[in-house]
Design goal:
The chain is mainly alpha-helical. The protein folds into three domains: about 75-155, Orthogonal Bundle (DNA polymerase, domain 1); about 185-330, hpI Integrase, Chain A; about 335-400, no CATH class. It has 15 helices and ten strands. It has a three-stranded antiparallel beta sheet with strand order 1-2-3. The chain has a three-stranded antiparallel beta sheet with strand order 4-5-8, with no helix packed on it. Strands 6-7 form a two-stranded antiparallel ribbon. A hairpin with a 2-residue loop joins strand 6 and strand 7. Helix 2 packs across helix 5 (about 140-155), helix 3 (about 95-110) packs across helix 4 (about 120-135) and helix 12 packs across helix 13. The radius of gyration is 29 Å and the shape is elongated. The termini are far apart. This is Tyr recombinase domain-containing protein.
């Protein structure tokens, strides 16, 4: 009895065609939907091996299912940027999403109507010159171009375009500009004196005393503040979101930290807590208990733009006063910057910066200063451990100046 030949096994729907060898590569044809005219939208992907081609086909199908793939060929740059940003926004922090949307707005204004497949390096170069004409900061222009390059790189992966035309375009080196000068202790003291009448004076005071960022200050909750131990925990941040604010965890693991503060800060926070209790008593049921240390006048989370508005108003008052009057507060005697470290602790400039980098919660070169008692406490603790911080800072400064590979055999 003759055995019949087995029928060829059919591939399941949606798997695409079998890998076909074409020259040195393998290709797979896959259906990703229908075109506007009703016909099937078939795409072909290639790979160096059959497995790679099949993997690209699966990625193409997933992208189509997630709305990351256009179902027609005349896709414009603006349409692709909208699709790409929406897909990124679903798993991105609100601040990152807002930044991407701002970048995409610049890109769409100049390149939005152009077909994606017809985009060339020359168009991207012209776009870069247009950004420069807007007098945008060089760093921001680089961010916008990086966003365009990332979006086009995804389009390459999705087989929408053959290559990334933004990659060859590089911005010219920015001219050396004037460095922003960090505030010294006296400047901080003058600003705090001017800001004292404002409701958010405690926010500014705590910010300068601890170096907390604006989003960390606005996200700080009373449950994370221990006035007796004079410590606070950075556990969440408040950032602007579409039409409101978003409270969530810090961006990085290192951003979660415990920060100490002195008795002066504790006194300011105690007074501020009493003021909030009075505001809550006056408003009664209209008060919203958010649990935040720095809420709005109704208890709701405070939008960062309100802090900016008050800060600019205080700075305007400060500048109109001429900044000539000596501060009436002893804040200056409690704050140290690099110059103070050099003068009071007989340290060189590089060693001073190295010492600041060794101290917790302080970034050298920033506008934030280290409190005198914090530095002294840190030095005393190191002395109890048998460590000489000055020598360690000097060694760190020398190591930073030594080129890699140097210091070998003489």
């Amino acid at each position: 009895m003759s055995r019949s030949k087995p029928e060829p096994r059919k591939r399941a729907n949606g798997l695409g065609s079998k890998p076909v060898k074409r020259g040195d590569s393998w290709s797979v044809q896959v259906t990703v939907g229908r075109r506007p005219d009703g016909k099937l939208d078939r795409r072909r992907v290639t790979g160096h091996t059959p497995e790679e081609a099949m993997q690209k086909a699966r990625e193409l199908q997933v992208a189509a299912a997630q709305g990351m793939l256009a179902t027609h060929e005349r896709l414009t740059v603006g349409e692709w940027m909208k699709t790409w940003v929406e897909a990124k926004a679903t798993r991105a922090a609100p601040t990152y999403r807002l930044k991407l949307e701002a970048h995409a707005k610049h890109i769409t204004q100049h390149l939005g109507s152009m077909e994606l497949r017809k985009l060339r390096p020359g168009h991207v170069h012209t776009f870069a010159r247009a950004l420069e004409a807007k007098e945008l900061a060089p760093s921001y222009r680089r961010e916008v171009l990086s966003t365009l390059e990332a979006a086009l790189e995804r389009a390459v992966v999705m087989e929408l375009i053959p290559r990334n035309v933004a990659r060859p375009v590089k911005l010219e080196a920015a001219p050396v500009t004037r460095k922003v000068k960090a505030w010294d202790a006296a400047t901080v003291a003058r600003f705090l004196e001017v800001a004292r009448p404002y409701r958010l004076y405690p926010l500014f005071y705590l910010g300068f005393a601890t170096g907390l960022r604006r989003e960390e200050l606005l996200g700080l909750a009373w449950q994370h503040v221990d006035l007796e131990a004079r410590t606070l925990r950075v556990e969440q941040t408040l950032t602007p979101d579409k039409g409101g604010v978003h409270i969530g965890p810090p961006k990085t693991r290192n951003s979660r930290r415990v920060v100490g503060f002195g008795p002066d800060v504790a006194a300011v926070l105690e007074g501020w807590k009493a003021e909030l209790a009075e505001e809550r008593r006056i408003l009664g049921r209209e008060w919203h208990d958010s649990g935040l240390v720095f809420p709005s006048s109704t208890g709701h989370p405070l939008h960062p733009r309100n802090v900016n508005r008050i800060s600019h108003r205080a700075e305007k008052t400060w500048h109109s006063a001429g900044m000539s009057r000596s501060p009436q507060t002893n804040t200056a005697s409690r704050l140290l910057d690099v110059a103070a470290l050099r003068n009071e602790f007989a340290l060189g400039r590089e060693t001073s910066y190295a010492l600041l980098r060794m101290l917790p919660h302080v970034k050298a070169g920033s506008r934030y200063l280290i409190r005198r008692e914090d530095l002294e406490r840190y030095l005393e603790q190191a002395a109890r451990e048998g460590r000489d911080i000055r020598k360690e800072a000097l060694a760190a400064a020398r190591a930073a100046k030594t080129p890699a590979g140097a210091g070998g055999a003489k």
